[in-house]
Amino acid sequence: MIKFIFQIHAKLKLAIDLGNTLTKFFLFKGEKILLQEKVNSSFFSEKLSKIIDAYPEIKSIIYSDVSGKTGKNFDQYATTIRIIPVNSEMRLPFVNAYESQISLGADRIVLVAAACKRYPTSNVLVIDMGTCITFDFIDRNNTYLGGAISPGFEMRFKALNHYTANLPILKHQTPKNPEGKSTHDAIQAGVHFAILDELSARIDYYQKKYHDLTVILTGGDANKLPKTLKNSIFAHSNFTSEGMLHLLKLNIDS
Q1: Would residue 136 show up in a list of annotated catalytic residues for this protein?
Q2: pTM for the full model?
């Protein structure tokens, strides 16, 4: 996944979240999103070029790359635009207690930065529902204590098909209950309720340790979860873009 923010004079800023399938664009004026767009990620380079051509005032780019596919996309712009990668060596708004700091994914850094910005001096668990499900925790002392990574919906469906001879590959459909009466329904129930149980158990673990816990839910697959779960936590569809905007402001003058 790749994420970028372009700064236009400090008035307009564009955040881009480049995932394995879709790339999302957020145009900011101050803290307000003026425009949202998304394209297939295979058209990322073309879209990047069009945006820079349309907004020649762009002077800086911040990017988060967990896919390793950034390549030479920025080389042609590096002489006139400041390029800022998201990594553990940049200026961060939190204390990083991750043991292998250099391996901490840029996408997770961005989410924790967003939590610092929106919920300062709080115990926060951020759950990102994407290709993988990530859990990241930062305590009220502004220290990032790590988390967990597990397979997301699509990865689980693909794994069941890939590692067996007879199970079909399915797209998610919300099952009515955990008791599937057919192979199709059993797979849907197995994937869906396993993820629900995992989320509930992880939230319960942190709530027992931190009674004043704030739980954040974000990511493209968050809409697959039932309203009964989402009503008990805070859902933020643009949490990634908020984190990148915060990191850009911290590092643009550093």
Answers
A1: no
A2: 0.89
